Write a sequence for this structure.
């Protein structure tokens, strides 16, 4: 809800409303957006969400953390 208002340093990171999720103001707004999603749009959101999940998996987050500390990923 209201992802655009989320402080940038708060998790989850990398969500992009319209690309891999929906951002909404209230329940009515969410229901209207969901009703407007056709099969093509659903596939786009699904693909974006899967890309986000793969990029933010525990393994990927641990790899990035270790690289930040100077330990190269294997």
């Amino acid at each position: 809800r209201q992802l655009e208002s989320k402080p940038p340093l708060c998790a989850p990171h990398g969500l992009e409303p319209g690309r891999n999720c929906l951002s909404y103001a209230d329940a009515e707004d969410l229901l209207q957006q969901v009703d407007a999603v056709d099969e093509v749009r659903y596939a786009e959101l699904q693909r974006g969400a899967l890309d986000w999940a793969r990029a933010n998996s525990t393994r990927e987050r641990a790899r990035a953390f270790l690289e930040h500390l100077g330990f190269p990923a294997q």
